[in-house]
């Protein structure tokens, strides 16, 4: 048997040798600078034989074609060149002439087939490798903030959420992020994981971002856009690359309340790509980032206009624990009962509720601000035939970052892995992958701090009659008897009741925090145990080579969510919940009028086993070239989103007597008994407490949550003028139906007596996902211009604006966006005698805007911000090494991207790179 296998192997190698009769080698250089040009496509015309140049500009490949041969050299940013050779002339020396790449970028994700960005049927933005190399931002994910139409929410150094067209919040479930064909969402939570797992800094080939609805091509949860990220092919990008960035952040600012102080920032990345032979190649990637994180420090009172000194019920946005709030009137009445002489003092106070909150803990010293991210990737590619490739890859990420939702979550020691196997041919692919997550020791800041307060001193101990509130009430009365006014007496009473309160960071505090945060929610702690998994398989076929009169692409997709939280996120304590999705899609396109007109139609069918009815979505588009390099585009897109697993099934403790709940009617009835104990809106309960009028109570009517959808129309115009100016302008209008938002409601399990709402400890508050009844409209417009100023100087500017009307004011809709954005960028990719110098400067401006966070965490105004990033770099050509000095937010004017999120200061850095191109 061994001899047979060996004979077959020798025969295969011999056959390869016989076919490769000629070996072509050479080097490609820049005609201006004489520098080697990497990643140049070198192919034999009308053949699949060829190679890519390596980091030294060298190429080598075999061909069995007969002479004369026409060799084609092509690369973005250079003029395509053809060279005819009549015999083996090794090595071939080729000089490529630089050319403007404006309007020449090729995109794939707009229609699942390659086309020039300029003629895309929908709005699409693109970032390439050269953009990343010359960027002043710390990583490619931060670059997205400068793209037309993009909104971001920065929860921490390691967690940024991206969206388009207005609906902006941390953990956006209506935005799809695809990495090398894999949906990058967390299997349980269903929102993209940002840059926590994905491509490393050195492995990004390109990023394409589709604005707005994209469900017809990419399925559920593509309502707010889709980002497609593609890693570098090891056959194309070879060699060892290293990038080391060292910086400093938290540089003191007189106007910023930053408690951290100057501290180091580290980011180290390495990539090794190797083409072993014409059939086999691999790559290895690793990146480690570490820094002291930004701190959320908003002290705005969520319960009114007062401060901690003036409002006994003070509950700061980023002070955790103050959500425990109790009306002390029962304690006042008890004091008057035991001492009737206090009646003249107490009776005037009983005319209204007197709510008092427990004392909260500030984020700094409570949450660990040591941000760490590590991710690694390995990929193996084998060419079974020249046009059939097998790909195997694995990506793993872990670390500690913070994100904002209904409270601040510190995802500590989380782990996520994505593993893929794929067969990829010229006209089809078959891909299967899995995503496996482990939430680690995630700390839920709000509930944990409330339980810490209860642990060191309970709010009220029914067995002893003692507790924080009885002590507070006694001290309040004592202070008022001594002559203090109510406000001063309240503050003094708090100081007394807080005697013995462990300081954040103390040994006692840390012991309580560790115990509570490491105890599962189902056992009285706050730890959730998310071990959910996602499995996905997809097949796509391009029939264009078989059907000549029209281009046809079709595909099918199967997905399984295996929800496994041990009852801490979902009602899955007994066994995991399985949710299946089945999809099929097709796209038809046709070119007419000498290829000047392109018509397209896409259709998709999706079925989710949580919901009875399937969804059919569509996209119709037309692109017309009215003049050379001038295109008008129009599209209609129908998109939808099945409620995410969280929106449908969540069952999570988020505070003292507070729950986050999915909108499934079965869940609300079977688990929370909404059919027996009527839920009312939290706002009306607060009004009832103030006015003691039961008519104030507004009932919340329960309807089973269902998919939301949007119909979007877009008209755009893109043009390349004189090969130097690229212009794009667009307008869109969208109509949303069954819009999913959130409502804060409460009920009183065990009683239907409305008076039970007077005592905060007797009712439970819920943050529930539900569909709004009326249609919601969004609209907006945008414009961008890119100018090639010659000699490798460039300038870019974009302006965009998004708006909403007819919104349901009873919902938290997450339309958190300013009235407009303005982004500017000026730079040069190579100047000086040898073009070794480069620089880039960008500015992002946003006026102030309203921002609302679900779960009652915060709502208010985000101040206006103008953020300037800049860098200057120099390349040592002979040793393939570059150095870059720069900074983000170089003015160090601290800003925030959303309520309850951190204030972001400047980061100043030096970056050293080897073999980065």
Short characterization:
Its main location: membrane. The protein has 917 residues and is mainly β.
Describe this structure in words.
One of its GO terms (cellular component) is cell outer membrane. Residues 1-20 form the signal peptide. InterPro entries: Beta-barrel_TonB_sf, CarboxyPept-like_regulatory, Plug_dom, Plug_dom_sf, TonB-dep_rcpt-like. It is found in: Cell outer membrane. The chain is mainly β. Among the domains are: 2-96, Sandwich (Immunoglobulin-like); 295-368 and 443-527, no CATH class. It contains 13 helices and 50 strands. The protein has a 22-stranded antiparallel β-barrel. A hairpin with a 4-residue loop joins strand 31 (577-592) and strand 32. The chain is elongated.
Structural class: mainly beta
Largest sheet: 22 strands, antiparallel, barrel
How many strands appear in the DSSP assignment?
Answer: 50
Helix content: 10-25%
Q: Mean of residue pLDDT? A: 89
Q: Which segments are poorly predicted (pLDDT under 50) over 5 or more consecutive residues?
A: 1-20
Output the number of helix runs.
13
Strand content: 35-45%
GO biological process, one term: siderophore transmembrane transport
Protein name: TonB-dependent receptor plug domain-containing protein
Domain TonB-dependent receptor plug: 117-226
Main location: membrane
């Amino acid at each position: 048997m061994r001899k047979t296998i060996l004979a077959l192997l020798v025969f295969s190698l011999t056959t390869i040798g016989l076919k490769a009769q000629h070996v072509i080698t050479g080097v490609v250089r820049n005609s201006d600078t004489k520098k080697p040009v990497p990643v140049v496509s070198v192919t034999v015309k009308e053949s699949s034989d060829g190679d890519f140049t390596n980091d030294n500009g060298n190429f080598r490949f075999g061909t069995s074609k007969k002479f004369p041969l026409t060799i084609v050299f092509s690369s973005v940013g250079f003029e395509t060149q053809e060279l005819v050779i009549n015999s083996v002339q090794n090595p071939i020396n080729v000089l490529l002439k630089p050319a403007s790449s404006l309007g020449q970028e090729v995109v794939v994700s707009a229609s699942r087939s390659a086309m020039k960005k300029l003629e895309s049927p929908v709005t699409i933005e693109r970032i390439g490798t050269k953009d990343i190399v010359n960027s002043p931002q710390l990583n490619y994910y931060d670059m997205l903030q400068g793209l037309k139409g993009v909104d971001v929410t920065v929860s921490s150094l390691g967690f940024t959420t991206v969206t388009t067209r207005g609906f902006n919040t941390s953990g956006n479930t209506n935005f799809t992020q695809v990495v090398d064909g894999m949906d990058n969402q967390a299997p349980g939570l269903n929102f993209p994981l940002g840059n926590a797992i994905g491509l490393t800094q050195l492995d990004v080939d390109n990023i394409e971002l589709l604005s707005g609805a994209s469900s017809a091509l990419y399925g559920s949860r593509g309502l707010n856009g889709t980002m497609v990220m593609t890693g570098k092919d090891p056959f194309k990008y070879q060699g060892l690359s290293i990038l080391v960035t060292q910086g400093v952040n938290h540089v003191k600012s007189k106007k910023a309340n930053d408690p951290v102080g100057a501290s180091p920032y580290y980011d180290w990345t390495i990539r090794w790509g190797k083409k072993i032979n014409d059939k086999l190649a691999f790559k290895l990637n690793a990146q480690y980032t570490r820094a002291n994180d930004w701190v959320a420090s908003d002290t705005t009172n969520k319960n009114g206009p007062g401060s901690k000194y003036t409002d006994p019920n003070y509950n700061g946005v980023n002070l955790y624990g103050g959500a425990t709030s109790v009306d002390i009137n029962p304690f006042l009445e008890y004091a008057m009962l035991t001492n009737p002489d206090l009646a003249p003092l107490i009776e005037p106070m009983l005319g209204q509720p007197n709510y008092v909150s427990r004392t909260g803990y500030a984020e700094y010293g409570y949450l660990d601000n040591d941000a760490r991210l590590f991710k690694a990737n390995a990929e193996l590619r084998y060419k079974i035939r020249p046009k059939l490739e097998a790909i195997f890859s694995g990506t793993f990420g872990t670390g500690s970052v913070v994100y904002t939702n209904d409270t601040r979550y510190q995802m500590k020691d989380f782990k996520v892995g994505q593993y893929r196997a794929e067969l990829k041919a010229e006209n089809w692919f078959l891909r299967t992958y899995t995503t496996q997550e482990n939430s680690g020791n995630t700390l839920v800041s709000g509930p944990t701090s409330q339980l810490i307060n209860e642990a060191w001193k309970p709010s009220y101990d029914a067995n002893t009659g003692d507790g924080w509130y009885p002590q507070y009430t006694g001290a309040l009365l004592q202070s008022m008897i001594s002559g203090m006014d109510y406000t001063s007496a309240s503050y003094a009473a708090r100081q007394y009741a807080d005697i013995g309160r462990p300081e954040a960071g103390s040994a006692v505090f840390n012991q309580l925090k560790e115990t509570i945060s490491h105890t599962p929610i189902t056992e009285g702690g706050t730890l959730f145990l998310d071990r959910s998994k996602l499995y996905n398989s997809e097949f796509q076929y391009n029939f264009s080579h078989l059907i000549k009169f029209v281009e046809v692409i079709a595909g099918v997709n199967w997905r399984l969510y295996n929800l496994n939280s041990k009852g801490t996120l979902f009602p899955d304590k007994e066994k995991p919940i399985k949710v299946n999705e089945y999809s099929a899609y097709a796209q038809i396109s046709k070119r007419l009028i000498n290829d000047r007109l392109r018509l397209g139609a896409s259709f998709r069918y999706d079925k989710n086993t949580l919901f009875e009815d399937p969804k059919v979505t569509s996209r119709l588009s037309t692109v017309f070239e009215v003049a050379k390099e001038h295109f008008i585009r129009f599209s209609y897109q129908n998109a939808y989103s099945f409620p995410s697993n969280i929106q449908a099934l969540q069952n999570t403790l988020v505070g003292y007597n507070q729950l986050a709940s999915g909108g499934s009617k079965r869940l609300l009835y079977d688990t929370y008994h909404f059919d027996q104990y009527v839920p009312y809106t939290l706002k009306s309960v607060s009004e009832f407490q103030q006015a003691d009028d039961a008519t104030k109570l507004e009932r919340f009517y329960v309807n089973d949550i269902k998919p939301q959808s949007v119909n979007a129309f877009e008209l755009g115009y893109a043009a390349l003028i004189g090969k130097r100016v690229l212009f794009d302008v667009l307008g869109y209008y969208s109509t949303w139906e069954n819009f999913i938002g959130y409502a804060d409601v409460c009920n009183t399990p065990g009683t239907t007596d409305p008076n039970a709402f007077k005592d905060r400890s007797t009712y439970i508050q819920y943050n529930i996902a539900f569909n709004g009844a009326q249609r919601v409209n969004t609209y907006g417009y945008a414009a961008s211009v890119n100018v090639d100023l010659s000699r490798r100087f460039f300038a870019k500017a974009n302006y965009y604006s998004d708006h909403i009307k007819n919104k349901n004011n009873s919902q938290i809709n997450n339309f958190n966006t300013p009235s407009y954005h303005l982004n500017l960028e000026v730079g040069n990719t190579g100047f000086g005698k040898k073009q070794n110098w480069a620089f880039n400067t960008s500015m992002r401006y946003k006026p102030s805007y309203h921002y609302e966070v679900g779960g009652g965490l915060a709502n208010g105004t985000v101040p206006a911000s103008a953020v300037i990033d800049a860098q200057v770099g120099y390349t040592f050509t002979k040793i393939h090494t570059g150095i870059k000095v720069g900074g983000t937010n170089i003015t160090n004017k601290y800003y925030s991207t959303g309520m309850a999120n951190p204030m972001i200061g400047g980061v100043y850095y030096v970056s050293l790179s080897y073999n980065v191109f």
